[in-house]
């Protein structure tokens, strides 16, 4: 998550009330499928926030370290760990350099819905490539960069820029970073990752029968993008 100042410090209380308030851990079948069998692996939860994705990794049997730049989000993560210990280690640090971690120190890295909030994508993915062992993996999810809300005006799609979100919930920061899909894929290749799978996911509108029927009839527009890449 972004540096100077960490944007998620400002929304940590509201964020933690809305997402995984019980501290159970993330429930995301698409992400879980991409992760596969990670029991016994050493895994980094990148930009882990209040730890919901780190708790998912631990539930799947991994030895987990979570890193985030927001001390307020980590406060919640640590509280959840204290209340229900899962062996997760939390570190206050910058996802853009991962300075506290040695080369090839993880079997895999998960970054769930956070790359859009990090200013420097290239250095972040290069850092992930540095800390992942050969044969290791990188799984991430993002808001789909080709559709609303990342692209308010179609002609802005090719821009690589920081933008102000429209109609943002009070538990999310007001700004994020848009990059074209090609930027994400090219940065993975530059960091010597091989892309194994990409999933474009359409999530139906909760408790809105009319909207869901219309979206289903139209085939749905993917709001989320998931990817898995490996380091040969």
- Helix content class: 25-40%
Biggest sheet strand order reads: 3-2-1-4-5-9-8
Shape: globular
> How is the main sheet built?
7 strands, mixed
Structural domain count: 1
How would you describe what is shown here?
This protein has 232 residues and is an alpha/beta fold. It has one domain: Rossmann fold (3-Layer(aba) Sandwich). It has seven helices and nine strands, in the order ααβαβαββαβββαβαβ. Strands 3-2-1-4-5-9-8 form a seven-stranded mixed beta sheet, sandwiched between helices. Helix 5 links the parallel strand 4 and strand 5. Helix 5 runs parallel beside helix 6. The longest helix has 13 residues. The relative contact order is 0.15. About 6% of the residues have low confidence.
Please outline what is shown here.
By secondary structure, this protein is α/β, with parallel strands linked by helices. It is built from seven helices and nine strands; from the N terminus they run H-H-E-H-E-H-E-E-H-E-E-E-H-E-H-E.
């Amino acid at each position: 998550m972004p540096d100077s100042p960490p944007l998620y410090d400002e929304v940590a209380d509201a964020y933690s009330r809305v997402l995984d308030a019980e501290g159970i851990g993330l429930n995301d079948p698409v992400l879980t499928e991409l992760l596969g069998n990670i029991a016994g692996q050493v895994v980094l939860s990148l930009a882990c926030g209040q730890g919901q994705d780190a708790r998912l990794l631990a539930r799947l049997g991994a030895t987990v370290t979570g890193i985030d730049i927001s001390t307020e989000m980590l406060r919640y993560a640590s509280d959840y760990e204290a209340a229900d210990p899962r062996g997760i280690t939390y570190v206050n640090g910058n996802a853009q350099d991962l300075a506290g971690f040695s080369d090839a120190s993880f079997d895999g890295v998960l970054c769930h819905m956070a790359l859009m909030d990090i200013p420097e994508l290239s250095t972040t993915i290069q850092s992930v490539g540095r800390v992942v062992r050969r044969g290791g993996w990188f799984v991430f999810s993002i808001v789909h960069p080709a559709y609303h809300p990342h692209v308010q005006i179609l002609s802005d799609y090719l821009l690589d820029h920081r933008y102000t979100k429209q109609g943002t919930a009070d538990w999310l920061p007001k700004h994020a970073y848009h990059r074209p899909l090609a930027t994400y894929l090219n940065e993975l290749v530059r960091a010597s990752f091989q892309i194994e799978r990409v999933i474009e996911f359409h999530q139906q509108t909760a408790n809105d029968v009319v909207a869901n029927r219309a979206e289903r009839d139209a085939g749905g527009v993917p709001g989320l993008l998931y990817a898995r890449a490996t380091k040969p």
